[in-house]
Design goal:
Length: about 240
């Protein structure tokens, strides 16, 4: 089913998409309509244009593919499935996601991966091909964030305050030197062979989607950020 979203109210568009399920849906001329795919399960949505905020919020399985950029809060509290962005994504990409995978070919804004969490078999994954803005992985409680730093012109692949409040999960960053200005409560180390094995499936999937050599990327230098168990955040939130 193909829907021409030009001039369409977001509620009308979302209703038409849900009524079409489980038939695959192609949305043409999308221009800022928000909540596309929200709460859906088993959906197959292809979007031409620019979806608005909260694309795939509470998404519970299936696939959403965007041919260009996405705005803020993509995958908000996502539970399962796959969201593929062939451009860049705005602030709070992957906010509180608790399952599924988001692949962004380009960059993300501030606070990508904020409040990500994992539970039992649920392990959320956010892969960023370019650069992430400030506060990447803020308050991260679980899951994997992978930043590949492609085509960023020599700038740092992550902004300031990376991992602030982090108390679970891991952030894998392809870079020659560890990020600067990390909080004391974040431990950084050079990626081991075991670490690279952990991220290999996601890097391979990224290259399948957008091109490039996964092998070449995985042979490059990566650093890993994890919570520093010897210096936890409890002093920031309780009186000692």
């Amino acid at each position: 089913m193909t829907i021409n979203a030009e001039g369409m109210h977001f509620q009308t568009l979302c209703t038409q998409i849900k009524e079409a399920a489980p038939e695959p849906v192609v949305v043409e001329n999308c221009m800022g309509q928000r909540y596309i795919g929200s709460g859906m399960s088993g959906a197959d949505i292809t979007i031409h244009g620019t979806p608005g905020n909260a694309l795939g919020a509470y998404f519970d399985g299936g696939r959403i593919l965007v041919g260009g950029n996405a705005q803020d809060a993509t995958g908000d509290t996502m539970n399962d499935g796959e969201i593929i962005i062939h451009g860049s994504s705005g602030d709070a990409t992957g906010y509180a996601m608790r399952g599924g995978k988001i692949f962004v070919k380009g960059n993300t804004g501030y606070r990508a991966g904020i409040h990500m969490k994992a539970y039992q078999q649920k392990l959320p994954v956010l892969v960023i091909g370019g650069r992430a803005g400030n506060f990447l992985g803020e308050y991260q409680a679980g899951g994997k964030i992978i930043v590949l730093g492609l085509e960023i012109g020599g700038s740092s692949p992550v902004g300031d305050f990376c991992g602030t409040g982090m108390h679970g999960g891991a952030i894998y960053i392809r870079c020659q030197q560890p990020p600067e200005h990390l909080p004391e409560q974040v431990a950084v180390s050079k990626a081991t062979a075991e670490d690279l094995t952990e991220v290999a499936p996601e890097v391979e999937r990224y290259c399948d989607l957008f091109g490039g050599s996964a092998r070449a990327l995985l042979e490059d230098s990566f650093y890993v950020l994890r919570p520093n168990k010897a210096n936890p955040y409890k002093r920031l939130y309780t009186h000692n």
